[in-house]
Specification:
CATH class: Mainly Beta
CATH architecture: Roll
Largest sheet: 6 strands, antiparallel
Helix content: 10-25%
Number of strands: 6
Distance between the termini: 29 Å
Order of helices and strands: EEEEEEH
Strand content: 25-35%
Amino acid sequence: MEDHPPSNLPDSGEVEGYGLPVRQWRPAAIKEWKSLGRGESVELREGHNVTCEGWVDDLTEDGTIIWIHLSNGMGRKMIHLDDDVEIWSMDAQMCQKQAQLAQ
């Protein structure tokens, strides 16, 4: 049996025996940062490792610099497009849209 982490999104089922919601979407890598909106939940990744989570606080008009308000009171982080950091959206609608574009 596979364990699923709890989600704050509406669920469409439960993991048998655990009563936890089953997430019906997967995080999506965002290549065009300007497509992100303020308040969107994101993960920051370096390689295959999630380094931190937070939400979009602000970004430049051209999408080359983004500020992420980090979870757990860890402050704010500025990231440049040339930094070796990937931004993955945790917003369910954005993830579904990215999946549709990939098909």
